[in-house]
Specification:
The chain is α+β, with helices and mostly antiparallel strands and 153 residues long. It contains four helices and eight strands. Strands 1, 2, 3, 4, 5, 6, 7 and 8 form an eight-stranded antiparallel sheet that branches. The protein is globular. The relative contact order is 0.24.
């Protein structure tokens, strides 16, 4: 990592950052160019591993590409403001990049858990999950292999 003094090394601080991010960007391998798509998400710590959940249609580009290659990159960030310095303008920010393997969830209980985590993260704790939505929604799980955080204040 360039600028190692900006690295967020404390896992609890990375979790705090994740709690303050609304959307993450999912990077998927696609032939010549990567495919990057924003997704809303939920997460948990499972057996000591950070796990992200997101959802989508059971068809389409994201669904197809994840079936072809499950290894993904996740990125999340907050830009707090821009600051004028003596020599330039810079951004005050926090961000993370994670790598992991994505899988399609086919277990009903885990799908319900994933959707509840997503609703909780989005601020809809009391919202109920409708069975018909569960039937037509693909639920994905990314188990994180590595994650790094960075900030500039």
């Amino acid at each position: 990592m360039g600028k190692e003094k900006r690295e967020i090394k404390d896992f609890a601080e990375i979790i705090d950052l994740i709690n303050n991010i609304d959307t993450i960007h999912l990077g998927i391998h696609h032939e010549l160019y990567p495919y990057v798509v924003p997704v809303s998400f939920g997460y948990c710590i499972e057996n000591g591993n950070l796990v992200f959940y997101f959802h989508g249609a059971k068809a389409g580009k994201k669904y197809k590409l994840l079936q072809m290659n499950p290894y993904v990159c996740l990125e999340g960030d907050n830009c707090y403001r821009f600051k004028d310095t003596i020599s330039s303008v810079t951004c005050l920010y926090e961000s993370f990049i994670a790598y992991g393997k994505c899988e399609l969830i086919d277990d009903r209980q885990e799908s319900l858990k994933a959707l509840q985590l997503l609703l909780d993260h989005c601020g809809y704790h009391q919202h109920s999950i409708h069975e018909e939505a569960l039937e037509m929604t693909a639920i994905f799980k990314v188990t994180v292999d590595s994650i790094t955080g960075k900030r500039r204040f």
